[in-house]
Design a protein that fits this description.
The protein is of the alpha/beta class. It has 16 helices and 22 strands. The relative contact order is 0.10. It binds 1-O-alpha-D-glucopyranosyl-D-fructose and calcium ion.
Length: 565
Amino acid sequence: MKETLKRTWWKEAVVYQVYPRSFYDSNGDGIGDLRGVIQKLDYLKELGIDVIWLNPVYKSPNDDNGYDISDYYDIMDEFGTLADWEELLLKAHEKGIKIIMDLVVNHTSDEHPWFIESRSSRDSAKRDYYIWMDPKDGKEPNNWASFFSPSVWEWDEATGQYYLHLFSKKQPDLNWKNPEVRREVYKMMKWWLDKGIDGFRMDVINALAKAEGFPDAPTDGKKGRYVFCPSLYFNQPGIHEYLKEMNREVLSKYDIMTVGETGGVTPEEALLYVGEDRDELNMVFQFEHMEIDAGPSGKWETVPWKLTDFKRIMSKWQLSLQGKGWNSLYLNNHDQPRMVSRFGNDKEFRVESAKMLATLLHTLQGTPYIYQGEEIGMTNVRFRSIEEYNDIEIHNFYNIALNELGLDEKEVMEAIYLKGRDNARTPMQWDDSPNAGFTTGKPWLGVNPNYKEINVAAALKDSNSIFYYYKKLIQLRKENLVIVYGDYRPILEEDENIYSYIRTLDDDRILVILNFFDRTPEFRLPEDIAYDSAELLISNYNVDPAEDLRSIKLRPYEARVYRIR
Ligand code: TEU
Ligand code: CA
């Protein structure tokens, strides 16, 4: 074993993301809740995960399903009580499962007492908790487009100013230049950490500093009055000072893990957040691989992608952070469509492709994040009408696309089917009983009709299920430090069907072979890779362990992991 190997618990952990609203409803009101999570802890223990990332559970009017917080110190009514939360933490810890909470401090709800006071008058003591500006030439201070509404500025008649909201108008941005705001945030973080949580996932954490002076975004011929310009509020000057202060004042005082959601970062910028010598965060969620199928106008325009481009992105991140920082590994979350529908095949090769993608995520260097339902191969959904959708981002896109961009409804719905966030938010499919066993009430969002075939009960009864494949992948990581800490080396980089790489730790080597499509390409082991023997660690097909590695005809979406000596 490398004597220099510094073992770290969050590098060896596998994280499972629970979106409580859709996880399990314990009281029949159609909405998932904390007691529902408590009741499913044994299921998560069986899977073998180490950490739960809980999406926001704080008090919220749910304009953006909990990402609009009105009280950081209490639990959302629909999810239960603080006592329920305490019981969840206690029981999770008893089962050896850690819990990290979602930290949402770029903005609050407009129903937060701070904002109510701030908007009450220009002289309010909390006016500068938020970002207020006078009109410019009689209209918004600049042309920035919001993620969830046309402009990032909302007019407040009572005080004759606009306030900034990168997201919905019910999510006013906090003014991080104000030291009082930062002190209040650090106090709240310590309050949760002193309750015993094991860290934070930090929402749009690289947006806390905005471009000085809020300059207009260049329009360069883009259609529409407002311009989407994350480069004017992501990774701006000042952001690292805030995170170093947060680390000094709070994070450094606890044995915890932190993962920042940082849209738009390059590996070089990511290292400024997660470099071992930076004293800021442990990991970030980068988005480069998640934008590979986005067109020039953004995520709603889906374009074909090439595996060689995907491999180049993944290799760049693996090699840039290796030995200096740490990657997060994900292809799913509550904001993204289901990975088996997007990157795999959710029809005749759903099981094989789900297992192949899981093999990628669990054998690269970094911490894997499993999004609820991914472990049973849940797929995207196609609701018939826009009324069946809940997500504010989907409704905003629908309205702008139809009314401003003049798209026809069929193509708008198709874009929603491909990229809408509700694809990930349909209720967890527990069994084939009504509403997939998620609720005895009316579910807050429709259940995917394929729950009759795709559900946990069926998976647990099938030794060949995606669930047991995930369980085995998670076990492999625990038994083979080379999978966690081994150096990454891509091979066959120009192959358009196969993603293959070697992980090496001292003299321990594993070889990963992934066929990304339903074609049957030949895998040829490069000459420069000598080996005498190979031990098959996991595969998604029946494989003759004695098969010669030098040349293999791969089956659709075939995945194999070997130890090679
Ligand atoms: O997401 C930040 C973000 O950039 C989102 O706009 C996301 O990338 C986009 O919707 C993908 O198309 C975080 C949370 O994950 C998201 O659920 C919240 O809606 C958002 O912040 C505001 O808090
Ligand atoms: Ca409930």
